[in-house]
Design brief:
The complex is a heterodimer of chains A (360) and B (244). With 360 residues, chain A is α+β, with helices and mostly antiparallel strands. Chain A has 7 helices and 9 strands, in the order ααββααβαββαββαββ. Chain A is 61% helix and 14% strand. In chain A, a hairpin with a 3-residue loop joins strand 6 and strand 7. About 2% of the residues of chain A have low confidence. With 244 residues, chain B is an alpha/beta fold. Chain B folds into 2 domains: 124 residues, 3-Layer(aba) Sandwich (Rossmann fold); 101 residues, Winged helix-like DNA-binding domain superfamily/Winged helix DNA-binding domain (Arc Repressor Mutant, subunit A, Orthogonal Bundle). In chain B, the strands form 3 sheets. In chain B, strands 2-1-3-4-5 form a 5-stranded parallel β-sheet, sandwiched between helices. In chain B, strand 1, helix 1 and strand 2 form a beta-alpha-beta unit. The chains are: A alpha+beta (360), B alpha/beta (244). Chains A and B meet through helix 3 and helix 4 of A and helix 1 of B.
Chain lengths: 360, 244
């Protein structure tokens, strides 16, 4: 990584120096051409002066023109032939044009090189920074459940506890382990998605069934947080999607909704689905903390956590919605978010391509 | 660990957004005999502290709405000197320094050992108990030297040139330790032990910095101190009367 960087920087420096060289060459050649044409003009004016002297000395005009072809004699006066004057002018323009075009082409090519190398360097710096912040964030995220686990175990080691107290501590430790496992899953999913190592299938999936499967897994947690999940999804509507990816998308979106409703002390999550011409739209509305309307795109970026800790007893890696968006993109669908503002709930819309209507 | 001796009934405020961790800390502190109040974010902590008092705040750094450093700084600006023990997942030295600069007393990185947490809580409370009892009588609450006047209870002072001074808790504590033993040599280690009580700072240089700050506040010529004298290689000697 380091040696690549050194190489890139050296190349950048070389290209930059070359660009300066070329620019200097253009300027230099231009003044050289002007200088040479000027010198030729001086020579010709000497010839004109010599011709004038010959004329004064009584040499015949015809003879003078024969001796000095660049000079014309008209009514006893010598002057530079118009063809020669035009030729000098043309030569000067032609040379300058040539240098400007050639130099300009090379400068353009070099500028393109500089842009390419500069971009590569910037992209690399960004990747490095992202990796750093990823590591920092991930290790930070793990420390909280780890600290909680350690605290529970040390409490058991330090104090005599009743069966009830031990039971509560064991439940807490199991929940901490579950949240660490969920974090690992999310991190692996996002890394896999980012590297593009996914091969999604496209098969007809009944959306009502998929939603029911995911909600039944989350029901217990939701009711513990006083959240009511309601579904209004017609049966028999099929989407074209990957069966595993659709579960991941729905799970992440619903977990996000639960995390948004928990801090306000409970509320509702409503899931609706409808079929339009080409698509099936699933809308998830929650009565949670909401977000600033301007944040509707930032929400889907990696590591965006608009409400750190808002997930109550659950994890928040800032990866959930990133995974949702990526998977929806790969599935040829889309996802969007909308909120009226902080404290006013949020609405997420998922849309998959509809499966060709079978049996309809 | 036995139930907390003299701290039974002492109120501790726990500010932690992770409910599991908060519950674990609260249960353990209660088992030690402390009265514990728990809130989940910085804003709530400041609101609670507007109307209530406690002997110690356990403060998480990464909090929703308002981070722990800001909470601590806000408290200090409001003149609230309640000791703060930071609990945080960010344990690197830069963060430790930030925590202490914002007015914290101690810093514990997550994951931490339960015994260490309880020990540190006790140590902080013991230091403050000592400071309060050592400033309890009207005579011990005020220190006068070289035209300066220090009010230990209000953390305020007026220097020889009439300029009012707001003391930080550490400055006041150092002054208290020195004033208890005027004319005697107090070692840097002794000062660290009495004022910080723990290995928060890696070096005794910190003490030197605080002494420099005290000289700036109270000496007529900080470069030629008459009250806060350095005893080379050992520590400091505090003189109430100027040495002639």
């Amino acid at each position: 990584m380091r040696s690549t960087r050194v190489f890139q920087l050296t190349a950048l420096a070389l290209v930059a120096v070359s660009a300066v060289q070329v620019a200097y060459w253009v300027v230099n050649q231009r003044s050289y051409a002007i200088e040479k044409v000027q010198a030729a003009r001086t020579l010709y004016s000497q010839q004109v002066a010599a011709a004038q002297q010959l004329l004064t000395a009584g040499v015949d005009g015809q003879r003078v023109h024969q001796l000095l072809p660049g000079v014309v004699v008209e009514s006893g006066r010598a002057s530079l032939a118009p063809t020669v004057d035009r030729m000098l002018l043309t030569e000067e323009h032609r040379r300058i044009n040539q240098y400007v075009w050639e130099g300009g082409f090379f400068l353009l090519a070099l500028a393109a090189c500089i842009t390419v190398i500069g971009r590569a360097l910037r992209a690399e710096a960004r990747v490095l920074q992202e990796q750093d912040s990823f590591l920092a964030l991930v290790s930070h995220q793990f420390k909280t459940p780890l600290a909680s686990l350690q605290l529970s175990l040390e409490t058991m080691a330090l104090r005599p506890l009743s069966a009830e107290q031990s039971g509560a501590l064991i439940d807490r430790m199991l929940a901490d382990l579950a949240r660490m496992e969920a974090m690992v899953t999310q991190i692996l999913e996002s890394v896999r998605l980012e590297r593009g190592r996914v091969d999604l299938r496209r098969e007809p999936i009944e959306i009502a069934g998929a939603i029911a499967r995911v909600t039944s897994n989350l029901e217990e947690r939701a009711s513990r947080e006083r959240i009511v999940i309601s579904c209004d999804v017609p049966r028999g509507v099929h989407v074209l999607a990957d069966p595993l990816a659709i579960d991941v998308v729905l799970r992440n979106l619903l977990e996000n909704a639960i995390a948004a409703v928990t801090p306000v002390g409970g509320g509702t999550i409503r899931i609706e689905a409808r079929r339009t011409n080409e698509e099936v739209e699933v809308t998830v509305r929650d009565s949670g903390v909401g977000f600033r309307p301007d944040d509707d795109m930032r929400l889907f970026e990696k590591f965006t956590r608009l409400h750190p800790g808002g997930g109550s007893s659950y994890f928040g890696t800032g990866l959930g919605l990133f995974i949702v968006r990526r998977l929806m993109q790969l599935a040829g669908g889309r996802v969007s978010a909308h909120s009226e503002g902080l404290g006013r709930g949020a609405q997420f819309v998922l849309a998959w391509p509809a499966a060709p209507a079978e049996g309809v | 660990m036995s139930a907390a001796d003299s701290h039974t009934g002492t109120t501790v405020l726990v500010v932690e957004d992770d409910p599991h961790l908060a519950a674990g800390v609260v249960e353990n502190l209660r088992a030690e005999g402390y009265t514990v109040q728990s809130v989940g974010d910085g804003q709530q902590a400041l609101e609670w502290l507007r109307t209530q008092q406690c002997a110690l705040i356990l403060l998480d750094v990464m909090l929703p709405s308002l981070d722990g450093f800001t909470v601590c700084r806000t408290l200090r600006e409001q003149g609230n000197n309640t000791p703060v023990l930071f609990l945080t997942a960010r344990g690197d030295p830069a963060d430790r320094v930030r925590g202490l600069e914002s007015g914290g007393d101690d810093y514990l990185a997550k994951p931490f050992h339960l015994r260490e947490l309880l020990l540190r809580v006790r140590a902080i409370l013991r230091r403050w108990d000592w400071y309060r009892s050592a400033s309890a009588t009207p005579a011990s609450a005020v220190l006068r030297f070289g035209g300066n006047e220090v009010d230990f209870r209000a953390f305020r002072a007026q220097s020889w040139n009439g300029v009012p001074q707001e003391l930080t808790e550490k400055e006041a504590m150092i002054l208290k330790v020195l004033a208890e033993r005027p004319g005697e040599i107090v070692s840097r280690e002794d000062l660290l032990e009495r004022v910080w009580g723990y290995d928060v700072f890696p070096s005794t240089r910190t003490v030197d910095n605080f002494i420099l700050r005290l000289r700036k506040r109270f000496e007529r010529d900080p470069a030629n101190p008459r009250h806060f004298l350095t005893v080379w290689g050992v520590g400091y000697r505090f003189l109430i009367e100027e040495e002639t």
